[in-house]
Amino acid sequence: MLKILGKASSINVRKVLWTCVELNLPFEREDWGTGFRSTHDPEFLALNPNALVPVIKDGDFVLWESNTIIRYLASRYGGAHLYPAAPMLRARVDQWMDWQATDLNRSWSYAFPGLVRASPAHQAPSEIALSIENWTRHMRILDAQLQGTGAFVAGEQFSLADIPIGLSVNRWFGTPFDHPHLPAVSRYFDRLAERPGFAAHCRNGTP
Asked: Per the structure, how many domains does the chain have?
């Protein structure tokens, strides 16, 4: 059976858990990370030298990097409805997944730990404000894309890209500051509520 190493509150672990629900894929999960077994334990480092969750073990195959993991699972376990084989359709999914992992993810890297985790290293008001400004700019990009598709981030159908993007939107709404009204993002988040993995792994009280 597929094994997932990582605590369930991690946003990157939750990508994998939600994907497994979409694929009806059974799994076992082990708690690793802050508050649980240390990812600096030699046993974990032998699997991922970066000391980060998640890691999966699919038989003898070991894989890390959350977006790579969910692409692999969709490709291996009948997820063509999530991750299409047609090059242009797949490239659009990949584009938004990569955007989430780089541009969008970086934009909250100061505001989120400062406002939600109360990190002492992220308390400068000017830096928080700058991070919120940058985060908002990226969320406006997402809002414009969703206005264009009228449905999901890569097009009319739910795709693998909506899992990391959906979790990112959940983090946006879960971080305490004055949010501008982004109507397409709000409608999108409500639309995601129809998905079977959404309540368990996205809108579950964890930003």
From this structure: 2
